[in-house]
Amino acid sequence: MKNDFLNLLDNIDDKQIDIIDKLSLIVNFIRPKNFNEIEDSLHKIDMIVDFFKKSDNLALTISNEINLLLIESKVSTNIVNLGILSKNGFSYEIRNRFYNKFLPNPPKKGDFRYIFATLFNKKNDYKWVNKIDNEKWIEFFSSILISHKYTERLKNHIYWELIYAAEILAIWIASEEFDDNFLRLDKKLLNRDSVFISLQRDLSDLIHKLQLENVNISSIKKDFEHIDVLIEQCNKQVLLFKKKSINHGISIDLTYELERLTQIIRRLDYILALIKSFDTNKFHISLVELFKESIIKNATKNSLYELYEQSIKIISKSITNNTSEHGEHYIASNVKDYIKMFLNASGAGIIIAIMALIKINIMQNNFSYGIETLFASLNYGLGFVIIHLFGFTVATKQPAMTASTFAEAIDKDDGRKVNQKKLILLTFQVIRSQFAAVAGNVTFALLLAFLLSFYFISNNSVILNTSEVEYYLDGLKPFSAFFFAAIAGVWLFCSGLISGYFDNRADLLELKSRYYHHPLLKKLLKKEIREKFANYLHDHHGAIVGNFFFGVLLGVTPFLGYLLNLPLDIRHVAFSTAYLGYASMHIDISVGEFLFYFICVLMIGFVNLTISFSLALKVSLLSREAYFGNLFSFFKLLVIEIFKKPHHLIFPIKDKKTKS
């Protein structure tokens, strides 16, 4: 280590290399070979600190050069830009990152971002930098900036760079005043100055006071407190936008802009805290924390994956807002809701049995693959739409909605720490609801399949021949059936996303008003009927489209398997039940065999629900940046509650009447 240090001193004494290269040599010397082991790095920092504290000619020369480098650099660009989403949007950002990743920007004099990227050019630098204590970094920076020649000049430069950064961020916030997306959500912005403009104006006044010579920060304490109040109001305005967007439509662009605005307000608040505590121990600690955060942002500034992950959060947030609003309608919390859920599911079971019969007929006509896929997709798609129009419930359509409600429950807890007991209660409600819905679907799909088969057989006809019976029963056997059930679970999840997306589009495009004021509908319908029609289409826009596309996805899966030469198909609990009903009536089947196939059907339903719910919950949690917590402790609590109250998993709790 000592030899390495002596080599470092020889290299930084070279007059031919500039100060950025010399700093790179110092950082390379400190950087550990293993990013998780920093003991050597701490010793090396101590060696560098001791060297600069001796203040010999070389140490003072290097310190002077570092001071001058910082004085000539636009530190504000790094403070303002790193970690803030681009104003130009996702498509520009991905192009820019792609170019910079493979063909980096040329160095610009005074560009602090370039200096930062040059010194910390390893993608794992943030790991060891963040492991080192703040106090150690303060000691390191104090030593390399030890030169008294430029101390005051550097302090003044940093101070005014912070003020400049605050001013720029305030202007960015004020520029959102007339953003089309924000005006759509809050039209009051047109009639009065928003808090964004007030913040920029008052901060500008504060900066004028700060520019006066010999101004004492403590003397303008009330001005800072006033700015803090305005920043809090800005945060409340952003929160108001988010709440209004749920009912007025939230596009990907709007979610992106809200995320960016939140980041800017947070950064401004941080910079003002630095200005207030300037040149104090608190300031030095905050500056080191900003340095550490900048190292993290620097490591991911050209990361396409990081941008993808960030964008997925934004997209999922824009989609799941609507599903969380509808989630509670799919959870039976009392006896009345439970019975209603069962009856609605029973109606769906009847229609599904008819859809299964139509599907059997389509298969029997030996159409070409293309025509068969078209008819099957229309059968599924239109069938699910009809089920929705009648107000019936398909059991496996619920998870995408209930998962959002789960995520919302997690998100509402303080610090996003999971309230396990609260989630257990919600889990019981969801399982009960699913049981009622599955029971309704399965019972009536099976009964109608039995009745229709009995009718055909009584009239000396059959629905299925022997080979077809064997085909449909084989389709229920493990384990291929469970794999195909998982595919259906993925499509269920996708249909939930599609529903959420089109619900957002309905709000965003104000479909209610468009239908109500449509010239043709004005001629055909009276005002009251037109209003009801417009309200219905608006409220059910996402559900209708989502149901239709779910049917299409189910219909095209076998055709995709044919094109890819893969054995792809789908298994859905309600349709599998209907096929079991039709097939079992056409052969002599024992009670044991029937129970085996019936258990297989229930397992198909379990896979449908588990896959769709898991995916929907993952996206919902991602969109809220919430975390489920310890899965083991959750299941432990769940098992304990199940043993305590097993009947509550299936049967609803009676409403407790409170005495007045």
UniProtKB/TrEMBL annotation:
Its main location: membrane. It is found in: Membrane. The lineage of its organism: Bacteria, Pseudomonadati, Campylobacterota, Epsilonproteobacteria, Campylobacterales. Keywords: Membrane, Transmembrane, Transmembrane helix. Pfam families: SpecificRecomb. One of its GO terms (cellular component) is membrane. It is a multi-pass membrane protein. Gene3D superfamilies: Glycerol uptake facilitator protein. The chain crosses the membrane at residues 341-362, 374-395, 435-458, 478-502, 542-564, 594-615. It comes from the Bacteria. InterPro entries: Aquaporin-like, Site-sp_rcmbase. This is Site-specific recombinase.
